[in-house]
Design goal:
This protein has 13 helices and 23 strands. The chain has 397 residues and is of the alpha/beta class. The longest helix is centred in the last third of the chain and has 16 residues. The strands form seven sheets. The chain has an eight-stranded mixed beta sheet, with helices on both faces. It has a five-stranded parallel beta sheet with strand order 2-1-5-6-7, sandwiched between helices. A two-stranded antiparallel ribbon has the order 3-4. It folds into two domains: 172 residues, Rossmann fold (3-Layer(aba) Sandwich), CATH 3.40.50.1950; 210 residues, Rossmann fold (3-Layer(aba) Sandwich). Strand 3 and strand 4 form a beta hairpin. The relative contact order is 0.10. The structure holds cytidine-5'-triphosphate (CTP). The site of cytidine-5'-triphosphate has 15 residues, from helix 11 and strand 18.
Length: 397
């Protein structure tokens, strides 16, 4: 199930640490290679000897051992996933503020793999605004939070704050890795970012899109085995993932052309770009000089890429559009679904704090042409990408 997967387990000072012993055992039994890093406080809750025996590796705890430096960079680069379970309130706060006074924190800060955290704390601590704020920060940095569940707590109180059960954490890791190749053999076109419509050699009309959502989608679907053609607007950082090729464009017309050239060979197209709706009729050859009078720039409509792909789409192709709205969200999203002949529209409303342009988080509702509608909570853009791709997978399989 997890054969050959490299899983780094982090343990912090919480009574729930005893459950992580079971998790380590389950992971090793499933074929994973497991290494364990713990905070000094965790030693009061679980024995390194137990963990090193189960994981078959020495347990890492000290930043400096016998006057030698412990290589935290190596640990975070070695792992396919770093799961911190349990995550105490104290370590959560340190992670949220970038503190680095032990090996686990140094490993977190230098990890290049996905980081998951499974918090465990008393119910009142779990609901405290500081904890909510710190968790939201971790999510906004792209980490995945496995929420605490309700039940009996160490304090004797009953409420939310129990760490997710080891069997559930194990299953989540199995799902994470087994999903991997569900888009194998598929070709996918993704657009991301803004377009810039020039006015003169130094100025343009643009928008605030960062391209993060489109990039997260392209990355996730490539990770699941698809061959991905990402058409990225200006300023979008192209990810380096196996199976992903990137074409950089500036204007809506260039994006249109790149999409039209590729679309006939695609199984799926996801139009996440914030394409300019208007472009200047005349682009001045020289910089426009300031005058006493105001300036009027005549604009004309750009071609609607999604609408054109909707017109060309065959019944073997699946087309996904986005809708970014500030009002009448549902009505506009459904109207776009129909007018552009898409199979699915992902709506994000600028009314939701933490959603939309520039944020690392997003909150979306999906509308599909079968009349189904699903709303998701605020998540990292990576987690939103995984939700969207899971949804598409259900539709096309
Ligand atoms: N889109 C496109 N080509 C355009 C404009 C938009 O492909 N010239 C796509 C976007 O990538 C997105 C969807 O259409 O998937 C909806 O974009 P949005 O800007 O929300 O809607 P518009 O159709 O431009 O309508 P309006 O701006 O009036 O809401």
């Amino acid at each position: 199930m997890l054969q050959g997967k490299k899983i780094l387990v982090g343990i912090t000072g919480s009574i729930a640490a005893y459950k992580t012993i079971t998790l380590v055992r389950l992971l090793v039994k499933s074929g994973a290679e497991v290494r364990v890093v713990i905070t000094p406080a965790a030693k009061d809750f679980v024995s390194p000897l137990t963990l090193s025996t189960l994981s078959r590796h020495e347990v890492e705890v000290d930043l400096f051992k016998d006057a030698a430096w412990s290589n935290h960079v190596m640990l975070g680069r070695w792992a396919d996933v770093f799961l911190i379970a349990p995550l105490s309130c104290n370590t959560l706060a340190k992670m949220a503020s970038g503190q680095c006074n032990n090996l686990l924190l140094a490993t977190y800060l230098s990890a290049t793999c996905p980081v998951w955290v499974a918090p465990a704390m008393d119910a009142d601590m779990w609901t405290h605004p500081t904890t909510r704020h710190n968790l939201a920060l971790l999510v906004s940095y792209g980490n995945r939070v496995v929420p605490a569940v309700a039940g009996e707590l160490a304090s004797g109180l009953v409420g939310e704050g129990r760490m997710a059960e080891p069997e559930d954490l194990h299953q989540m890791l199995v799902d994470h890795f087994s999903n991997n190749k569900s888009f194998s053999g598929k070709k996918v076109l993704v657009t991301a970012g803004p377009t810039y419509e020039p006015i003169d050699p130094v100025r343009f009309i643009g928008n605030h899109s960062s391209g993060k959502m489109g990039v997260a989608l392209a990355q996730e679907i490539a990770r699941r085995g698809a061959k991905v053609f990402l058409v990225a607007g200006p300023g979008v950082q192209g990810p380096t993932v196996e199976g992903l090729t990137i074409t950089h464009v500036n204007t809506a017309a260039e994006m249109y052309q790149a999409c039209l050239d590729n679309f006939p060979h695609m199984d799926l197209a996801i139009m996440a770009a914030a394409v300019a709706d208007y472009t200047a009729v005349q682009v001045a050859d020289e910089k426009i000089k300031k005058k006493e009078a105001g300036l009027t720039i005549e604009l004309q409509k750009t071609k609607d890429i999604l609408k054109e792909l909707g017109r060309l789409k065959t019944n073997k192709q699946f087309l996904v559009g986005f809708a970014l709205e500030t009002n009448n969200e549902e009505t506009f999203a459904k109207e776009k679904l129909r007018a552009k002949n898409a199979d699915m529209i992902v709506l994000n409303s600028l009314k939701h704090a933490g959603a939309g342009f520039g944020h690392n988080t997003n909150q979306v509702t999906i509308f599909d042409k079968d009349g189904q509608q699903v709303s998701y909570p605020l998540k990292s853009k990576e987690a939103v990408a995984a939700d969207i791709i899971d949804y598409i997978h259900e539709k096309i399989k």
